[in-house]
Amino acid sequence: MQKKYKIMIIVGIILTIGILLFNSEYIVSRTKSEVIKYSVEDMPGNAPNNTYPLIVLHGFNVIYSTRFGQLEFKEFHDDVSKELDYQNRGILIKETTCSELKYSENPISVRNTYFTIETTDIDDYSKTLNRTIEMIRYCTGAEKVDLVTHSMGGIVARNYIKNIDNSTIRKLVMMGTPNHGGLYSFSDVSNYLTQEGSNLSIDFLQLSENHDFMQRLNEGDETIGDIKYYTIAGNTDGEGDGVVKEESVKLEGAEHFTIDCSHVFMKHPTFCKEALNIIVEILKT
User: Fold this and answer.
1) Are residues 214 and 105 in the same domain?
2) What are phi and psi of 50, to 5 degrees?
3) Containing domain of residue 142, as a range?
4) Of the candidate ranges 25-39, 165-179, 183-197, the one whose mean pLDDT is the lowest
5) What is the pLDDT of residue 208?
6) Is this structure's pTM higher than 0.85?
């Protein structure tokens, strides 16, 4: 019996350490923001002309975790910031202050999540992105931002551009984004549920080519506004990246790149340096 309790205590300690490590970036960011809020006057900045903060936006994850969403793009965010001398501000949280975001020389880069516990609707995700962009623009004084997205993050951004504001983004880069649905066979369930159209506001259903949301998103001009669009598709089997078909990623009016990387690995420079190199060249100018 005593041995059983010891095992339970050890497992509990391991789980506690794991949870703390998983949330460590958030805990540090929140603590720093709280300290700054009470010690520094929180005034917006005045960004130099022709500088553009970078927002890195994750894709779908099955557990709808804000922490996981912020964490999964960390390696890419760190590497692109280092390559292009961005001031890496880590994750953006509701406690982040303007004092942490404003800059006088090199622009900042941040990671953010659009997940909330209240909704699974991409329209609501785009409203969250709107608040993020407005906060970045207000705090930095920059006129526009650049966005690098993965998978569903690109759909969130396109929906923001089409239905909220098409004047705040300079460049939009989409990696493995299912712009026309075009998912592999494991999406048969969502396609079946939306085969005659659907108004169900659930994100993974909205990614189906049959869903009313996706059909409305692709009506008319696919690359709206004075924005430079870039699409990057993995092609590892002659069809796509294992999750999204290459033809679905392409947009009329966007510059397109094909890489030999899977859907999951393309956002990790350790496994797919090619995607990082392309995006560095895109953001250089």
Assistant:
1) yes
2) 60, 35
3) 43-284
4) 183-197
5) 86
6) yes
